[in-house]
Specification:
The complex is a heterodimer of chains A (138) and B (507).
Chain A lengths: L1 H19 L4 H21 L22 H31 L13 H4 L2 H4 L17
Chain B lengths: L6 H16 L4 H26 L5 E4 L10 E4 L1 H22 L9 H17 L3 H19 L5 H32 L4 H7 L5 H22 L7 H8 L2 H24 L13 H21 L3 H20 L4 H31 L16 H16 L5 H12 L6 H28 L17 H19 L1 H15 L3 H9 L6
Antiparallel strand pairs in B: 1-2
Helix pairs in contact in B: 1-2, 1-4, 2-3, 2-4, 3-4, 3-10, 3-13, 3-17, 4-5, 5-6, 6-8, 6-9, 7-19, 8-10, 9-10, 9-12, 10-12, 10-13, 11-12, 11-16, 12-13, 12-16, 13-14, 13-15, 13-17, 13-18, 14-16, 14-17
The chains are: A mainly alpha (138), B mainly alpha (507).
Chain lengths: 138, 507
Amino acid sequence: MEFLVASAIGVMTAAGIYMVLRARTFPVVIGLSLLTYATNLFLFATGRLAIGRPPVISADAAGYIDPLPQALVLTAIVISFGMTAVVVVMALRAYLETGNDHVDLPGDASPEATEDDWKLRGRKPAPAPAPGGRGGRA
Amino acid sequence: MNHLLILPILLPAVVGALLVLAARHDSVLARSFAVASTVLMLGIAVALLVLASDGQVRSYALGAWPAPFGIVLALDRLSALMLVLTAVLGLGVLLYAIGGWDQRGKHFHPLFQFELMGINGAFLTGDFFNLFVFFEILLIASYGLMVHGGGGLRVKAGVQYVVTNLVGSSVFLIAVGMIYSVTGTLNMADLARIVPQVPAADQALLQTGAVLLLLVFAVKAALVPLHFWLPGTYANAPGPVAALFAIMTKVGAYSIIRLYVLAFGADAGAAAWLAAPWLLPAGLVTLVLGMTGVLAARSLGQMASFAVIGSMGMLLATVAVFTPQATSAALYYLIHSTLAAGALFLVADLVAERRGAQRDRFAAAPRIAQGGLVGGLFFVAAIAMTGMPPLSGFIGKLLVLDGVRASAHASWFWALILSTSLIAIVGFSRAGSFVFWKAHALPAAPAPGYRPDGALSFVAVGGLLACLVLLTAFAGPVHAWLELVAAQLYAPAGYIDAVLGTAQGVR
């Protein structure tokens, strides 16, 4: 079980870092999600891996598992979930306002950023600019 | 327990929520509440400073759960100092924002209050998972403030900022998990008690966790090679928000000072002074890179951002010497550089508002309105930022040069600090002459769409600069007090006893 959990964390972290380093916002968001999954799993594993042990006191328990990491994971999940929503909205807003979904600022962006620009192509993207789409106000 | 300790967190939380609920549509009400709250916060911070000045560390167990099982807040001289600094900068920035920035988007004032809440919380907490939570609070508020007013470029820079900090948060959690898995505690004082007893077999895991944590604080403090997010973020953020962010890099510096002196300091056995070999070279490289960036910058905002990076480098390299003398010098420079950077960003915004489409770029633009006054303010802020006499930057650099004299790397400090000061002076003079003097060669034409600010903007900038003058005039007493701060930091037994003493019911 240790091998399975450890390799799952490792693979997700590696994939997450690879995706975060991509040039466009969608893979970056996916990468952030993978990274937070890996982090949550890692935090969970810091309470040691054991099967069938309760984290709360009960009369017929043979042993206990550390409940604190589970509380930490819960906090981390809530925060990372909310933050993913924020970054999605901000990425969408940046796409609609600047015309492309590249992460780089215009000064440093690759030539592909202009090729991908929907404003320069004179065509609207599938989701029309939503009036309520205000970025980053969580 | 003294309930005054939790007020710097509670007050902005309550006021922020009230502003969202009741003052959404009424700008006068929102402004009055925000200013009243920030002034009150300054009062509370000063009261806490007076309270902490007696040298006793006070702890506040939330929900009366004893440490290390519950979360504690701890107040010592350093945290009280940071609270006062936050409130002073916050008040200046808020007054400036009321000059017009706060109406360019929604919810400026609530976000501002939540930002202050997160910053105050990070300075007060005595628990490092709680530190993570307060980091998130201040970051979430800063995401909103960063894109305040909108605009494609700003939102794009905002996305970069959010992504960087989300990766940072993940690393923070991994580091916290590692340290917890070895020591079984999240309380900083308890950690300091346990770290010396960690067996050799677990040292690798503990030290990896501690260095990862250092990495996270270095992201916040914009230390090379983790500084890439800062110029894009600060130069694209609204002026007053960039000025407020001047304190956010210091949250990283504060966390480094707090944790690596308390838990990984002289008593930490195999993990003693863990941060020093990483922090010192990184800090010096940051100093060089930041000040070189000042020379290469293409706008006032960018230049101020690189000046912030440079000052963080100097601050953290000085901290990395880890002696009370160097730390007290670093703290003096910390106060100075926060206020100077705040004032500089506000001046850059004053310029940008007056130059129409050219904003604050170093490009030809006609003379600006009130050019003499704005130019004078820029001159004072630049003198402060580059560390020229007579302002406090000079005294700060002098104290740092003196404070690191005993260090084995003193020659590096002297050479790099003095040469980068020269580079910064060249950069700032070039910027000043370009923006304020070369404009006289062009025919005068007021930028379209410009409406003059009220006196409030100037009061805000002038107030921050006046604080620098006060810091210069009272450098002696302030530095004497900062030596007490450093002495308290380097005697961690008092902090540990005060926090864990509550566990035995001693209040």
